[in-house]
Design a protein that fits this description.
Rossmann fold, 48% helix, binds adenosine-5'-triphosphate, binds magnesium ion
Length: 350
């Protein structure tokens, strides 16, 4: 009776870390074409010429960041003549923060007491001795993009790569910047079902011991990930299905465990320590799928939401961190910078 049971010291996971969203696999199947295009835009740098800029766009969780990180890693392994800088603009959302981070990545540590212009001079002086690839991921999260003008005008040999979920973000960019940037557009489309299955089964091989996964359970996770059009959903389910199976001391992950994992995902999403006001905010957003933050605030107040506009903005940030919603910023439009808030469907809503 107990022979098929997992002992408490045993685990189904060979390498659980490989299910982390930041983990970059050695191979990135089904993105070869896009990676090749990116590499082509960087190639002139290896010949001492100026590179071609790139705008990458596509929905969440489909390998944009992973593909670029992979190309950068390959570049770093093959040449010392090109600096590679990767910045996530959600974490670093102003010119000052970005330039500090670039300095750090260039191993320059005397950034204290320097203002944005001085930091830019440091960057320029280092980078202009060689050439550089700059990646600005989640570019639509930036508060302002002044540093881009400086980079474009004063760094001679570079490829600037901008990554966003929203192709339309670029429409809101000033003409002055567009005419200097002239990026090549590379679209990432969501994976089809066989691709999703291939990616997730390869990840199972990294993360779990052999033959742990039952075929029906795999297909269930693949279906959920494919319907959400997001590999992250699949990775999350792989991990939590494994944990559910372990909690039942099962030596295999079966369909029932994967189903339970989907349920858990929904429950934690609902609970996720949202307070009363955040729930009101979320319900307002759900009713108006794509709305400016200012208009949402009015509706939120009408529904009895409390607090100032500033605290409402913080609630929106919290909801976004919890992946309940997405926001995008339009910089420098007619009304200044505007934030548009979008509702993110949960798994059971697809
Ligand atoms: N082709 C692939 N092969 C293996 N893993 C992949 C592939 N595509 C995506 N992934 C994995 O899926 C997860 C999400 O991918 P990634 O972070 O690149 O998404 P993204 O397109 O940048 O999304 P977002 O717009 O939300 O930033 C990562 O853990 C990544 O390793
Ligand atoms: Mg990304």
């Amino acid at each position: 009776m107990f022979k098929d049971m997992l002992e408490s010291s045993q685990t189904l996971f060979k390498n659980e870390d490989s299910l982390d969203p930041e983990w970059v696999p050695k191979l990135l199947p089904h993105r070869e074409r896009q990676q090749f295009s990116v590499a082509n835009c960087i190639k002139p740098l290896t010949q001492g010429r100026n590179g071609i800029n790139i705008l990458i766009y596509g929905t969440p969780g489909i390998g944009k960041t992973a593909a670029i990180k992979w190309v950068l890693r390959d570049l770093e392994e093959n040449t010392d003549e090109i600096y590679s800088i990767y910045i996530n603009c959600w974490q670093k959302n102003t010119s000052y923060k970005i330039l500090c981070e670039i300095c750090t990545q260039l191993n320059y540590s005397f950034t204290q007491n320097k203002n944005t212009d001085e930091l830019f001079d440091v960057v320029k002086n280092i980078v202009n001795k060689k050439s550089a690839v700059f990646v600005f991921d989640e570019i639509d999260k930036l508060e302002e993009i002044n540093f881009l003008y400086n980079l474009i005008n004063e760094v001679y040999k570079k490829t600037i790569i901008l990554i966003t979920n929203y192709k339309e973000w670029y429409l809101g960019v000033e003409d002055r910047l567009k005419s200097r940037l002239l990026p090549e557009n590379i679209e990432f489309k969501a994976y089809n079902k066989p691709e999703t299955k291939d990616i997730l089964t390869k990840r199972i091989d990294y993360a779990f011991f052999p033959e742990v996964w039952d075929e029906d359970a795999i297909n269930f996770v693949v279906d959920n990930s494919y319907e959400a059009k997001d590999i992250r959903v699949g990775l999350k389910l792989l991990r939590s299905s494994g944990l559910v199976a372990e909690s039942f001391s099962s030596k295999k992950v079966f369909l029932e465990h994967a189903k339970k994992a989907v349920e858990n995902l929904e429950l934690t999403k609902d609970k996720d320590d949202l307070d009363q006001d955040e729930r009101i905010a979320l319900s307002v957003i759900k009713e108006s799928p794509e709305e400016k933050i200012g208009d949402l605030f009015k509706k939120y107040q009408e529904k009895g939401g409390s607090g100032t506009y500033k605290s409402f903005q913080r609630k929106i940030e919290h909801l976004e961190k919890g992946k309940f919603i997405k926001t995008k910023k339009f910089i420098g439009g007619k009304e200044g910078t505007t934030t548009i808030v979008q509702y993110t469907k949960s798994l059971t809503e697809y």
